[in-house]
């Protein structure tokens, strides 16, 4: 025996969701930067070096001197020669006054005065050591520097933002369905 049956077949409804994501874009432009550096002010003051060379003593040693100095030296030598000559003649006169004491003052004086004094040989035009005098005053340099500060101008730029909102779309993908069927029913 077959029993009557009710068959039910159901199908659930299905919802479909379609999402579009939001889009955001942020762009940050670089800041505008202007830097100006003025040149430093430099002042340089120089006192020149001074070199003083005195070679008058070296010229005198080589017998190359000014006429005034030469006249002065010859005058000194003349005065010295006169003093020596006067002293020699006074001494010889004293010897001659004492001729009665014996000896031969005339012969001795003739021998002394009969020969010229020997002259020394050698180089006479080389100046004495350290005859040239040097005096050096070094240069002086004064440097003044005035620093100028840089000027910096910065202009920030605002960010550029674009935004596209997202969307959510819902729809019915599949409708609900209920089917009922009967089997083994007698009529």
From TrEMBL:
Protein name: YviE
